[in-house]
Amino acid sequence: MEFYHFTEFAWPFLPPDDEFTSMRVNLPSAVYDPEIGADWYNMCLDQHLLADELGLNCMINEHHQTATCLNSAAPLSVAIAARLTNNARLCILGNPSANLRDPIRNAEEMAMIDNLSYGRLECGFVRGVPYELFSSNCNPTETSQRLWESISLMQKAWTTHDGPFNYEGRWVHKRQVNVWPRPYQEPHMPIWMTGGSDVNHATRSVENGFTFTMFLTPTAGMKKMFTGVRENLKKKGLPKPADDLFAFMPLVAVGETEEEALKFIKQVFWYVTNNKTEPQFRAPPGYVETELYANFLSGKFSGGRTDAIRTKGMDYFRENGVAVYGTPNQVVKQLKKMYKEIGGFGNLIAMLHSGDMPLKDVSKSMKLFAKEVVPQLKDLGTVSSKVGMLKDRGTPIPAKRFNGRTEALEAARAKSGVKVRSPRKQRKLAAA
């Protein structure tokens, strides 16, 4: 099993709750303080350096025009992490290729970061959350098809090395596609997809060898989705997919005592209690099926994604696997129980930080998680499935880090006459 640290770079210094209706779409940017924000960005990035030191991977995402996530350009953050970390897999989840990013520009950026990281990049793509469709002026009924078409183009761009090609899709039309650089991994970086309710979308993802991911979803909901994928693939005569094609993200906190863990998880839980959005922004017509749309508008609890989530409370989240917290052994027990109930998964994205949680608290929780929880779970999960393109999933070129590739680099230098400096030493994270 692989483990990823996650923080959403959320802006925690909000007005009183009764003075704003939504953290998304319409919260004025006057609420943001650049002087504090500059430190906030660097504090969040420092967490990724600590994750690398602890042997954890990193997941970084992006959102737009919202206080829930200050990371509006995830490729920048991932590029920084690629340069400063040494070992962590870097998962960008995700790139909103359906409504914002040009697929060719996206393909170029991802290939460049894959090289900067020496083949440690995992590429995640998303349909885009409904709140952000308004500013992008994108038709909600088209985003799913646009997403799949964009991914198809990017895969072709990453694997075509004999010169330019033209691409004629339904939504995307490109001329003289010739992406430089090519990815460090062959044939390209592993791809991740997200989803919440559409089992056919999830099945298509796994069938193509993509890792399918769910966020803040009760165990029963994940079991329904993951089981549905496995059953659909079986009906198609395909092998059972390996656990490493499934991932999920819960809120996580680990303390030396249960009381300390409760203190930490309440800080992480800030993301749930404050992430409010007006109903009309949450589900624009055509974005989800009619029944789910009705649940959104009526305030019914649905997969952890409505305002009703805030009425459930911490105990409900712990009982249903959305929040995982306690002493190391308690957390191990909870995760093993979830693994069994769901039917297996191979990637855990631990949201260990949110709100104004101090760095000293998240650092302690991360250290306990990495040193005492991960060793007891790392052998869980199956790998190396033969479903779809899995046999071709991204594999780093067998080469050492920059300083170790003496012969190849010296030959290149001699041929080109260019002198290349060695990378500067990694910045040491200040003691939290």
Concise description?
The protein is 40% helix and 14% strand.
Q: Can you give a write-up of this model?
A:
The chain has helices spanning 34-54, 74-84, 103-116, 133-136, 143-159, 199-207, 219-235, 258-268, 270-274, 279-282, 290-298, 313-319, 328-342, 359-377, 406-416, and strands at 2-7, 57-60, 90-95, 121-125, 165-168, 173-177, 185-186, 191-194, 211-215, 246-249, 251-254, 323-326, 347-353, 395-396. It is built from 15 helices and 14 strands. The two termini are 28 Å apart. Helix content is 40%, strand content 14%. It has one domain (2-405): TIM Barrel (Alpha-Beta Barrel), CATH 3.20.20. Helix 7 links the parallel strand 9 (211-215) and strand 10.
* Overall SS class: alpha/beta
Name of the level-1 CATH class: Alpha Beta
Share in helix: 40-55%
Q: What is the beta-strand fraction?
A: 5-15%
Please give the structural blueprint.
Elements: E1 2-7, H1 34-54, E2 57-60, H2 74-84, E3 90-95, H3 103-116, E4 121-125, H4 133-136, H5 143-159, E5 165-168, E6 173-177, E7 185-186, E8 191-194, H6 199-207, E9 211-215, H7 219-235, E10 246-249, E11 251-254, H8 258-268, H9 270-274, H10 279-282, H11 290-298, H12 313-319, E12 323-326, H13 328-342, E13 347-353, H14 359-377, E14 395-396, H15 406-416
Parallel strand pairs: 1-2, 1-13, 2-3, 3-4, 4-8, 8-9, 9-10, 10-13, 11-12
Antiparallel strand pairs: 5-6, 7-14
Helix pairs in contact: 1-14, 2-3, 3-5, 6-7, 13-14
Key words describing this protein structure:
TIM Barrel, disordered C terminus, 432 residues, alpha/beta, eight-stranded parallel barrel, two-stranded antiparallel ribbon
